[in-house]
Amino acid sequence: MMETSRRERLRAAVSLEIKQVAHQQITAQGISALTLRSIAKQMGFTPQAIYRYFENRDALISELIIDAYNDFAQSIQKASAEVPADAYGERLLSMLLAYRQWAIAHPVDFALIFGAAIPEQHVVQRITQEASLQVPALLGSVLFAAWRQGFLQPLPEYQPIPAEIEALLEDSRIALQSAMDLSDLPVELLHTMFLIWSRLHGLIMLEIGERFQIIKEPEALYRFEVLSILKAMGVSITKR
């Protein structure tokens, strides 16, 4: 048993080192330049040795993405836990600000999750799908709890929703059902969830992509957008 445990610890340590080297290479050269051979060369391994730990490049990239999703979710969870459970406005504010903070602090991981062009993308997405739902589930749980308690309403300016868009949103309800209970939610609230994500995520992507150079204080703009969205939903915030 002791020998097996030591072997497992060694395998875990080598796997971690492989991922660290892969992350370094992605940071320096981009994901398109990443190969198992280049990792093996940097680590002093034979190329064949890497395959003992990762079946192929997709498996390694999938592990990196899952690690990023897990760390991302932990930061959002921490932001939520710092605010009383029934202070819905403050919790949403804290979590949405943490969303940007994590992205700015981890631009390579954020791009790996959302922006990188990955060969065999459909394979990687299938492997990482469960991990990818963690952050939406955390944010959605607070958003939907606030609605159920009468503390917010869907964004009014986009109603009524056309039938064809409603059908698309119902498809998304099915896709997200494994991560959160959406059975009692009006389609307008699902639409609001996607609007919040697209508006705030878009600002972050522009900032990380250095397309916001004319904006001197992107953090202030992002915070204002968060507060504007919450205000439009009727969410009360006492501490800002």
TrEMBL record:
Keyword Cell division: no
DNA-binding region(s) in UniProt: 35-54
Keyword list, A-Z: DNA-binding, Transcription, Transcription regulation
Domain HTH tetR-type: 12-72
PROSITE patterns tied to this protein: HTH_TETR_2 (PS50977)
Keyword Acetylation: no
InterPro entries: Homeodomain-like_sf (IPR009057), HTH-type_TetR-like_transc_reg (IPR050109), HTH_TetR (IPR001647), MT1864/Rv1816-like_C (IPR025996), Tet_transcr_reg_TetR-rel_C_sf (IPR036271)
GO MF annotations in UniProt: DNA-binding transcription factor activity; transcription cis-regulatory region binding
Lineage top rank: taxon: Bacteria
Protein name: TetR/AcrR family transcriptional regulator
Organism: Ktedonosporobacter rubrisoli
